[in-house]
Specification:
With about 290 residues, this protein is an alpha/beta fold. It has two domains: about 80 residues, 434 Repressor (Amino-terminal Domain); about 200 residues, Endonuclease, Chain A, CATH 3.30.870. Helices cover about 50% and strands about 10% of the residues. It has eleven helices and six strands. It is elongated, with a radius of gyration of 21 Å. It starts with a helix and ends with a helix.
Length: about 290
């Protein structure tokens, strides 16, 4: 699926909620959008299968009596950006559609909650760590392809430095900080990177120690991307070796959020986690 489909699905889901909240039928909404619209087309719009022109959306929001300016601006931005090409399209030969979708979601999201068991989250990696991990995972990739993927990963991190930075809460298993694929120098620099990041007000990092009791995170890593429009539009990413699953149903997303709450309780407190990272950095001193 392409990256724009995420924006269309988010817009469609919000329009469906607005229509149902007003007790309006799709055919009535179609009349207020304009010529060429009917009930089935509204259904496709709400299912994220097609877009809508900004002027048409304005008419629909007026009909739904949406007066909040901020909410209208967000929905109009989704309509305008439905077919937006991001910087990552330059790398379309080396990144999968699922990866492109992740980058688009990170660009739109207001928060990101990540649980990782064997790797430092991509947004928190150094270039050297990224290169070592990408080369290990993509065994058959050329050096040129690996370098391109490293460039992509570093470019993604711009969301941490934008005017309204992405709020990141990362829970990392201690095993991820004891890899065998990275040299002591790479790990020393990576751990220092984590220590630098926790100084930022919008980045929180907790470590789950090796001796932690059984917990639901044992099922595997995942990422929750929080959207500014509504919690009902949050998306969960579950990655596999050759594919990625995006979970969008609000009921299922709520389960992942609940699990994340449990993981926060099982992980070391923020200050204690930073102390552990600092001690491990000394172990990796080259």
């Amino acid at each position: 699926m392409s990256a724009p489909s995420v924006r269309r699905r988010r817009l469609g889901a919000e329009l469906r909620r607005l229509r149902e909240g007003r007790g309006v039928k799709g055919v009535d909404a179609a009349r207020h959008i304009g010529e060429g619209w009917d009930g089935p087309r509204v259904s496709r719009l709400e299912g994220g299968k097609l877009g809508i022109k900004p002027a048409e959306l304005v008419s629909l929001l007026d009909f739904y009596e949406v007066t909040d300016a901020a909410r209208r601006d967000i929905l109009l931005a989704l309509a305008r950006d439905g077919a937006r090409r991001g910087w990552w399209q330059t790398y379309r030969e080396v990144i999968s559609p699922a990866y492109a979708e992740l980058i688009a979601l990170e660009a739109d999201a207001s928060s990101l909650r990540s649980y990782q068991t064997l790797l430092v989250p991509g947004l928190l990696q150094t270039a050297a760590y990224a290169r070592a991990s990408i080369a290990a995972i993509n065994m058959n990739s050329t050096a040129e392809a690996v370098n391109a993927l490293v460039e992509v990963r570093m470019a993604r991190q711009s969301v941490l430095a934008r005017p309204n930075p992405l709020e990141v809460w990362a829970i990392i298993h201690e095993a991820a900080l004891r890899p065998t694929f990275a040299s002591p120098q790479i790990m020393n620099d990576q751990l220092q990177r984590l220590l630098d990041l926790v100084e930022l007000p919008h980045v929180s990092i907790q470590i789950i120690p090796l001796d932690a009791p059984p917990h639901p995170g044992m099922a595997g890593p995942y990422t929750v991307l929080g959207m500014p429009e509504s919690a009902d539009l949050d998306v969960v990413l579950v990655e596999h070796v050759a594919s990625a699953l995006y979970v969008e149903d609000p009921v299922d997303v709520a389960v992942y959020n609940a699990v994340f709450g449990h993981l926060r309780a099982h992980a070391l407190p923020l200050a204690t986690s930073a102390d552990l990272i600092a001690r491990m950095k000394k172990e990796h001193r080259p």
